[in-house]
Amino acid sequence: MPNVHDLIQRHTLLSITCLDRLYINGYVPTLQTSGQLCYFLKQHLGNPVPSPALLGQRHERFVREVKDFAERAGGPLVHFERKQRKDEVASGYRAKFEKPEGVVFVGVAQEKMSSFKARKALGPGGGVYFDFSRQPVAVNHYYFYVQDAQWGPGFVKVGSYAPYPVKLCLNGHEWAKQQLRREGIGFESLDNGFLSCEEPEQLQSLCDRLGPADVQGFFDRWSRRLPWPLLPSDREAGFEHKLSIWQMEVSLTQVFDQPVQGRHFFEEVIRDNLDLGRPERVGLLFPNKVTKRTPAPTHGYRTRVITQGVNPSLHVEYKRSHVKQYFKENQALRTETTINAPGDFGVNKGLENLGHLRDIGEQVNRKLLEVERVGQNCTLTQEALDRVQRPTVEKGQRVPGLRFGDTRVMALLHTLCLFILTPQGFRNGALRKHVAALLGMDLTEYTPGKMTYDLRRLSLKGLISRRPGTNRYTVTTYGLKVAFFYSKVYLRIIRPGWAAMRDDDIPRPLHHALETLEAEIENLCDNARLQPAA
Predict the structure, then answer these.
(1) 203-210 contacts: CB < 8 A, separation 24 or more?
(2) pLDDT digits over 182-236, tens only?
(3) Burial track 381-401 (b if 16+ CB lie within 10 A, e otherwise)
(4) C-alpha torsion angle, residues 520, 523, 525, 526 (rounded to 10)
(5) Is the pLDDT of residue 288 over 60?
(6) Same domain for 250 and 316?
(7) Strand (E) or helix (H) holding 109
(8) In whole angstroms, what is the distance from residue 279 CA to residue 432 CA?
(9) Nearest one of 330, 339, 328, 331 to 362, comparing CA atoms
(10) What is the CATH number of the domain that holds 475?
(11) 387 and 251 in one domain?
């Protein structure tokens, strides 16, 4: 049976990276505080007293316009019930909608939001004034489910009370499908994804082109076609919504030529990578360094394996974001990074950071697959094994061998696995503390000088390379294989094998035939996913 590396290299029919679901916030920057609200009611609207009655009039006007709009558009006004799945309701109405563009229906749901509450008071001269404060309230929100010529299905949710929050729900795969239809390129859908495409390179080019301007264009079109709580005169005065990223998903979909066999490979991936959520392995996936200022989530960095029916999925969590990997409709491997807080990656929620966050999501997806592929394709040829084990002369310098089984060498290569795919590389100190811990030493015993000596050995042997102009090192492809090979042979073959031989409760099988011993060794190798080198 091919391993994960063979599956991805030889059995992939289509591989597409694309933005998936996008949840976008819309807020009015000049209408977020009580002072800004008073300015809006008094200076902008020209009222001598900033009374909440003015907001009530606007609310009633907006509700009337929504009802009239639903009647004119011919779409129903649907009141969502509590805990009702809105997507399921929307799917039923979308199935009956045949127009290329328009409003499918309007939904109403009572939900919580932060709004302004007024407190009436008397001034020193007996005059009346109002003091506004932000408080959570349960009010009606209107969901406009639309079919857009550029984006396909989506919805716009508008809060009916000041400061009139807005949310957009869009899907990058649906946007790409619309572009393919416009260009006359045939494709086959896989839910919110692709099963096949006549021109896969053009499809990937279209997916890469999707950016903030496309999201802003959708909002600009529909905010001027739908009933809106702010009037055109308000917008001209600067009371306009600004978009920010609430949640985004970046997906990599890989369609295989033998889907059923592919599912078995995915189960092997789960078995082989259950430790990806441990704190020390987070660096393999996410580009941020974990420090005291970036504490672990409430339940820690963790990997969860979830089984729904017979389809397993792998979840790796990091702070408020996570990576999910599963088989989509038993057809394709979907690797999906969900970013819930752009601040986790050093940027704000501004829509202009969409491209930067997409790059991070793509990087995380690629790293997860790279760890999985290398982990199951780390067999060394005899020549490569001799090169690392025996003393050699590299760049005119004699370099001692890194002998398998040597305590210091094994600790060094085990630790190297923690930093294999960190994009910024690693320093002497970062590696040293882990090696010392595995050796059972404190940092006064395993000195920086000893670490420097070991780094020199690794570098001259070609296992790591120094980044020009820095004191950081990155792991080479050869080093990647050596680290995994040494670690897997020791942890999955040597250590469990010797433990069994030393156990007094298990009779030593010395009297068994050599064929039985050979079969046991082969079984251990198979379970460790180590195949004979060609």
Answers:
(1) 203/16, 203/176, 204/16, 204/17, 206/176, 206/179, 206/180, 207/16, 207/17, 207/18, 207/19, 207/172, 207/176, 208/17, 210/18, 210/19, 210/172, 210/175, 210/176
(2) 999 999 998 889 999 999 999 999 999 999 999 999 999 999 999 999 999 999 9
(3) eeebbebbbeebeeeeeebeb
(4) 170
(5) no
(6) yes
(7) strand 102-122
(8) 17
(9) 339
(10) 1.10.10.10
(11) no
Reading the block at residue 485, the tokens are 């090979």
Residues 223 and 338 in one domain: no
Place of tokens 């393919």: 180
Instruction: Scan for tokens 């310098």, then name that residue.
Output: 397
Residue 55 lies in a domain: yes
User: Residue 398's domain spans which residues?
Assistant: 382-495
Q: Is 183 exposed, middle or buried (0-12, 13-18, 19+ CB in 10 A)?
A: exposed
366 and 284 in a single domain? The answer is: yes
CA distances from 175 to 138, 154, 241 (A): 33, 10, 23
Mean pLDDT is lowest, of 160-169, 258-267, 282-291, 411-420, for: 282-291
Contact 363, 384 (CB under 8 A): no
- Strand extents, DSSP E, 425-468: 464-466
Q: What pTM does this model have?
A: 0.76
3-state SS assignment for residue 20: strand
Residue where a domain terminates, one of 325, 350, 377: 377
Domain membership of residue 522 (yes or no) is: no
3 state DSSP class of 298: coil
pLDDT tens-digit map of 400-409: 899 988 889 9
Claim to verify: residue 159 and residue 52 sit in the same structural domain = yes
pLDDT exceeds 50 at position 281 = no
Bond before 232 cis per omega within 30 degrees? no
Q: In this predicted model, what pLDDT tens digit does every residue of 86-138 receive, in sequence order?
A: 999 999 999 999 999 999 999 999 999 999 998 887 767 666 778 899 999 99
Same domain, 260 and 371: yes
Q: Give the pLDDT score at 138.
A: 93
How many domains is the chain built from?
A: 3
